[in-house]
Write a structure and sequence with these properties.
The complex is a heterotrimer.
Chain A (H helix, E strand, L loop, with lengths): L1 H5 L1 H17 L6 H25 L8 E9 L4 E7 L1 H20 L8 H20 L3 H10 L1 H11 L4 H34 L6 H4 L6 H18 L8 H8 L2 H26 L1 H4 L2 H24 L3 H21 L3 H32 L10 H4 L1 H15 L5 H16 L1 H26 L16 H19 L2 H18 L3 H4 L7 H6 L3 H22 L1
Antiparallel strand pairs in A: 1-2
Helix pairs in contact in A: 2-3, 2-5, 3-4, 3-5, 4-5, 4-12, 4-16, 4-21, 5-6, 5-7, 5-12, 6-8, 7-8, 8-10, 8-11, 10-12, 11-12, 11-15, 12-15, 12-16, 12-22, 14-15, 14-20, 15-16, 15-19, 15-20, 16-18, 16-19, 16-21, 16-22, 18-20, 18-21, 19-20, 19-21
Chain B lengths: L2 H5 L2 H24 L6 H4 L18 H25 L1 H29 L13
Helix pairs in contact in B: 4-5
Chain C lengths: L2 H6 L1 H19 L7 H19 L18 H28 L3 H20 L3 H19 L6 H32 L4 H12 L1 H6 L12 H18 L8 H8 L2 H26 L4 H24 L4 H21 L3 H29 L14 H4 L1 H15 L5 H15 L3 H27 L13 H19 L2 H16 L7
Helix pairs in contact in C: 2-3, 2-5, 3-4, 3-5, 4-5, 4-12, 4-15, 4-20, 4-21, 5-6, 5-12, 6-7, 6-12, 7-10, 7-11, 8-12, 10-12, 11-12, 11-14, 12-14, 12-15, 13-14, 13-19, 14-15, 14-18, 14-19, 15-17, 15-18, 15-20, 15-21, 17-19, 17-20, 18-20
Classes of the chains: A mainly alpha, B mainly alpha, C mainly alpha.
Chain lengths: 542, 129, 506
């Protein structure tokens, strides 16, 4: 037990890889064997990650489950893993979405099955590595390696314009990441000249004092990489192509996890390593402006889509805008909301893509006009779609509401205009999702091809149910998630705005409040009070 | 550039000047002093006193080139023996062995050529050469 | 001359003997009885590698032949690389030689002679010796390029290579002559001292090893000489603007020979390039760094842009080889110990992945190299999964995706460049390496994502070829995951190379 406790991250990280290697040696003809092996691997991967949630001590600010082995000593790169609250949530999201993605492909993929699952599992290891690693060099390795399986997934199993989408995705991301590599090297050299130690250790690099000019340069090197990944407004053009052309599982992973790597990058690297640049007014204004553009533009474009999947893809642009908005409000509410919204978006949009995938598998079209009145023939499907859509548009009691509300709270705290503009994003989301729902589920069942559609089978339900449970859990009782985020948010705040907590002793993650958190009732009350006061203000602004 | 550097080239320059003057001078002198009575016979190309036949630019067998190349190759190698012979006594047994090795290598090349038929004038295809 | 001198060139002696033996065997055996030739060639290479290993540690070796040759760790690194390259080329060309009915004896003999010349280049510490080594390897490669005698393009590329190569060598020779005129020395260490003395006249008076020339060194002459030396070397490494020959020669040459040229010859050229510029001319770095800067940038940009437009895989790899010369020049521009080590590491990684890629190209090419267009590769991912998978690994490594040697090589290059404050060059370099991904990916796209228009025949992979593929793939991964050993070797060699110079470096 202690061995597994000490090496749990390695185990979680490499189970998918081991499964991929195992599958490579299975005979190609045995399709069900390959399917079972892949699904079991993914499920096992999910199971071993569950203890992380229980073993994780949210009152500790340091990284947990740390493992560290020397890798390339001459440049100071280590194999080092560890989790804090932010990465814990993302790792769990990855393991669960990874399993669901694999489960969802059981019948939809029939060609080159073996390669498909190998690539999915490799991708899984790559993504987990990105979130787990505490070494910037290793981070880069995972970040780039992950491109390859995703490229093949889109390029081989994708839709009509798969080649274009695959290459566009690859090149876009590669251009961004090579610039990030330079940023990493710059930090590395700065650290070496300041401390004399050659290291890529993320914790060490978070404690540097860098002149603000230099910080801005490095910030923009990172910005390109992360903004392309998120994707933020002018860099988003790869996303609709990649999403639409990717197979369902690919879209789920892409939207659910891959995009989070960009926002994770901002939270993990840009903010704490380059605090002066991140809080530079020019940068903040730029980031907020881009986020608001993404929110509104993404929503408007979604409204106009005729293709179901493209609509969901563009809605991602809008939702990711909320996350970056939250992060760059640079206050505890915005930050924690942004981080939680990453998870929410993974759940809701992942589920939306599953919904699209299920209907696509039956009809081989995604034209919204082809559908209508589906609720008559597929009641379970329609119900689940409704819940998922509500969760995505931010209905209270569901997860999307919590994240967006806290983000808006944070935005309001800085500038009411930001919050007001962002709220239009929520309205737009309600518009395009409800309209989509109406066009597809309600109305007359006039297309004869839709008359004999089968409702969800057990496997398909099983892909959606866990996500719906999570959506309700976060919507009804988000406290454990916020508690996990308190310490990391506090650490980021202390880097970015050191004076913030002195002025706002009640704020989320404030040291004083953390001490009080020992008595749960007190903290509950303050939280409730905070929500109440914020509601009042939000109401006033409307 | 310092003076002494150029100075060391002055003798060469002088030699160059003398050579050019002499060559040009001889040509000019023969042109000015000689008599010019061109005949048809005098204007034809001089080929060892025999009446020239055909065009000078016709194709030669590639074998000539091969022989010429081989000749130069071995010629140069033989020339290499000359300085060696001059200081043979100083080099002693070491030099002897060294030259022996050198000749063995040359000989290996020669054997290769022979076997390949490069020296065989009548062979239609000179076996890869 | 002493015995130790002979031991220093023992690897070259062994290679020469093996080459002569193979050559004679080829002549005296019956036609097509060439099975022994590769074996003898491999044995010779193994023996030569053994002769290098025997002299370990290379740190303490004295120069041989009065300072003409230096078997230091730097040269040992390159020797081992050349032997590896040559051995892989011998193994991977066994199919090709049989298929095209090439004269096996001469082919292997010339490979060995070329390798010997490269070995001499790597260890020579004297401009004259460098010239001799360069000529030995160049002459052999001119012939190798034209080895498909019946094919017009092969002869054409041979002639082109020969003519342009002779020009470049002439430039180099002129540069050597001028350098001798300026400093009175051809030995690299002496040239270094002479140039250093020029910069510091006080030590010049005191230094007893000073060259026979009295008085200051004429700087204009040195500058001209550096320019000419640069031309000669830039041609050999196919850096812009002296790259014109590369695509034609690489395309026309037999594929295994192309692999040899693009890895072995290029590495050898970089070895002398490094040694001459870093040892002899380090003192006047400000005169040549900008040359490298411009040439490196242009090589990357032009190589990559031209490669984007190619449909022939050999030609595409030729242009990519120009681009890779550019990346290497980026590290060279840093002219630091790190930079030298980065160049060495990159050359090793590049050699392995490129030989692998060319081995696949050679195998798919089939008789007469008929199938070397990208469209021929359509659908191969499913018809020849293992070959296509290995090609994918090599191409990803050429792009520079992590966990492959190519990534680490690039990382090390850009690290060195950034450390030397070459920010813009580094930024342009990494962007270039991202652009380059496009044309490598296109091959992958054809292999896996295009339906096959024409079912090209795929021969069974023979064991020798299989070994080459597996070896290069394993080595590519090894260099990408556990690069430490090679990295240490390269760093120590670089440190040792620059150790005694003690000026200006870092």
């Amino acid at each position: 037990m202690t061995w597994i406790h000490d090496h749990i991250l390695t185990v979680v990280l490499f189970i998918p890889l081991a499964g991929a290697i195992l599958i490579m040696f299975l005979p190609k003809e045995n399709k069900n064997g390959v399917r079972w092996a892949a699904n079991l691997t993914a499920f096992l991967g999910f199971l071993v990650s569950v203890p992380l949630f229980f073993w994780f001590d949210s009152s500790v600010g340091e990284f947990q489950f740390v493992e560290k082995v020397e890798w390339i000593p001459s440049i100071g790169a280590n194999y080092s893993l560890g989790l804090d609250g932010i990465s814990l949530l993302l790792v769990l999201l990855t393991t669960i979405l990874g399993f669901i993605a694999i489960l969802s492909s059981w019948t939809s993929i029939n060609e080159r099955l073996k390669e498909y699952y190998v690539f999915l599992l490799l991708l899984q290891t790559g993504m987990l590595g990105v979130f787990m690693t505490l070494d910037f060099f290793l981070f880069y390795v995972f970040w780039e390696v992950m491109l390859v399986p995703m490229y093949f997934l889109i390029g081989i199993w994708g839709g009509a314009r798969k080649l274009y989408a695959a290459i566009k995705f690859f090149l876009y991301t590669l251009v961004g990441s090579v610039l990030m590599l330079l940023g990493i090297l710059a930090l590395y050299f700065i650290n070496r000249s300041q401390t004399g130690v050659a290291t890529f250790d993320i914790v060490a690099l978070q404690n540097l004092n860098i002149p603000v000019n230099l910080q801005l340069w490095i910030f923009f090197a990172f910005f390109v990489a992360f903004a392309i990944k998120v994707p933020m407004f002018p860099f988003h053009t790869w996303l609709p192509d990649a999403h639409v052309e990717a197979p369902t599982a690919g879209s789920v992973i892409l939207a659910g996890v891959l995009l989070k790597m960009g926002t994770y990058g901002f939270v993990r690297f840009s903010l704490p390593m380059l605090p002066d640049a991140s809080s530079h007014p020019m940068v903040v204004n730029l980031m907020i402006t881009l986020s608001l553009i993404a929110i509104i533009y993404g929503g408007l474009v979604s409204l106009m889509q005729k293709d179901w999947k493209k609509l969901v893809a563009y809605s991602s642009v809008s939702h990711m805008g909320f996350i970056t908005l939250g992060i760059f409000t640079l206050n505890p509410n915005g930050l924690s909301g942004g981080i939680l919204q990453q998870i929410n978006h993974g759940i809701s949009t992942g589920a939306l893509f599953l919904i699209v995938g299920i209907i696509y598998e039956r009809r081989h079209t995604r034209e919204i006009s082809e559908f209508g009145g589906l609720s008559n023939v597929m009641p379970v499907y329609a119900t689940m779609f409704l819940i998922v859509a509500m969760s995505s548009l931010g209905l209270p009691t569901l997860n999307g509401f919590i994240g967006e509300f806290v983000i808006l709270q944070g935005a309001f705290e800085e500038n009411w205009v930001w919050a007001a503009l962002a709220v239009t994003g929520i309205i737009l989301a309600a518009a395009y999702l409800l309209w989509l729902y109406q066009r597809t589920m309600f109305g007359p069942l006039d297309n004869p091809k839709n008359k004999n559609l089968k409702d969800l089978n057990f496997r398909e339900m099983m892909t959606l149910v866990p996500l719906i449970i999570l959506a309700f859990w976060i919507g009804l009782y988000p406290k454990p998630f916020f508690r996990i985020l308190e310490q990391p948010v506090q650490k980021i705040m202390e880097r970015v705005r050191p004076a913030y907590y002195a002025a706002h002793p009640d704020a989320f993650g404030a040291p004083a409040r953390l001490n009080a958190a020992a008595q749960p009732s007190a903290s509950l009350e303050t939280e409730a009070a905070a929500v109440r006061s914020a509601e009042k203000r939000a109401g006033a602004s409307r | 550039m310092p003076n002494y550097y150029i100075q060391s080239y002055i003798p060469i320059l002088m030699l160059l000047a003398v050579v050019i003057l002499l060559a040009v001078g001889m040509l000019v002198a023969s042109y000015l002093l000689g008599q010019h009575r061109p005949t048809r016979e005098k204007l034809t190309a001089y080929e060892c006193g025999i009446t020239p036949t055909g065009d000078a630019r016709h194709r030669f067998s590639v074998k000539f080139y091969l022989v010429a190349m081989l000749f130069i190759l071995f010629d140069v190698e033989v020339i290499f023996l000359y300085p060696w012979a001059v200081i043979f006594k100083e080099l002693g047994i070491f030099g002897f062995v060294e030259m022996l090795l050198f000749l063995v290598i040359v000989l290996a090349g020669f054997a290769y050529l022979w076997k390949k038929g490069a020296l065989d004038w009548t062979k239609a295809d000179s076996g890869g050469l | 001359m002493q015995t130790s001198d002979l031991i220093r060139i023992l690897p070259e002696i062994i290679l020469a003997v093996a080459g002569i033996v193979v050559m004679l065997l080829g002549a005296f055996q019956k036609q097509n009885a060439g099975r022994m030739h590769p074996a003898i060639a491999l044995l010779g290479l193994l023996g030569a590698a053994g002769a290098i290993a025997y002299q370990y540690p290379w740190r303490s070796l004295d120069p041989a032949f009065g300072g003409m040759l230096e078997l230091d760790a730097f040269s040992a690194f390159f020797h081992i690389l050349f032997f590896l390259v040559a051995a892989l080329v011998v193994l991977s060309s066994s199919e090709y030689v049989a298929q095209e009915r090439l004269a096996s004896g001469e082919y292997h003999a010339l490979l060995l002679f070329a390798t010997m010349g490269m070995g001499l280049m790597a260890s020579s510490n004297d401009l004259i010796m460098i010239f001799i080594g360069l000529e030995i390897s160049s002459l052999a490669s001119y012939i190798l390029v034209g080895f498909r005698r019946g094919v017009a393009t092969s002869s054409e590329s041979s002639l082109k290579y020969f003519l342009l190569g002779s020009f470049a060598t002439a430039f180099l020779l002129y540069g050597i002559a001028l350098m001798f005129g300026a400093t009175g020395a051809t030995n690299l260490t002496e040239i270094h001292l002479a140039l250093q003395a020029e910069q510091n006249t006080v030590t010049a008076m005191a230094s007893p090893q000073l060259t026979p020339l009295v008085g200051p060194v004429p700087t204009a002459l040195v500058g001209l000489s550096i320019a000419l030396l640069f031309v000669g070397f830039a041609f050999k490494v196919s850096a812009v603007p002296f790259q014109i020959w590369t695509p034609d020669v690489y395309q026309g040459a037999p594929t295994p020979v192309t692999a040899f040229l693009s890895t072995g010859s290029k590495a050898a050229a970089f070895a002398v390039f490094l040694r001459v510029f870093m040892v002899a001319l380090e003192g006047s770095a400000q005169d040549w760094v900008w040359l490298l800067w411009v040439s490196g940038l242009l090589s990357m940009v032009l190589g990559n842009l031209a490669a984007l437009l190619q449909t022939n895989i050999k030609r595409m790899l030729a242009y990519s080889s120009i681009a890779h010369a550019g990346y290497i020049l980026v590290a060279f521009t840093a002219h630091s110990e790190e930079g030298v080590a980065a160049v060495m590491f990159y050359l090793a990684a590049y050699a392995l992945m490129n030989i692998g890629a060319f081995a696949v190209v050679s195998h798919f090419g089939n008789r007469g190299e008929r199938y070397v267009e990208m469209e021929h590769y359509a659908g191969l991912g499913y018809r020849a999964p293992l070959l296509a998978a290995s090609m994918t690994v090599f191409l990803l490594s050429l792009i520079g995706i992590p966990l492959t040697g190519g990534f680490f090589g690039k990382f090390y290059i850009f690290r060195a460049a950034l450390h030397a404050d070459l920010v813009w060059l580094t930024v342009l370099g990494v962007l270039n390496s991202a652009i380059a991904a496009y044309y490598y990916l296109r091959v992958i796209v054809f292999m896996y994502m295009h339906p096959a228009a024409e079912q090209i025949p795929v021969e069974r992979v023979r064991p020798a070829m299989g070994f080459v593929l597996i070896f290069s793939m394993a080595a590519t991964f090894l260099l990408g995951i556990f690069p430490q050993a090679v990295l240490d070797f390269a760093s120590q060699a670089a440190a040792l190379l620059l150790e005694n110079l003690g000026n200006g470096v870092l």
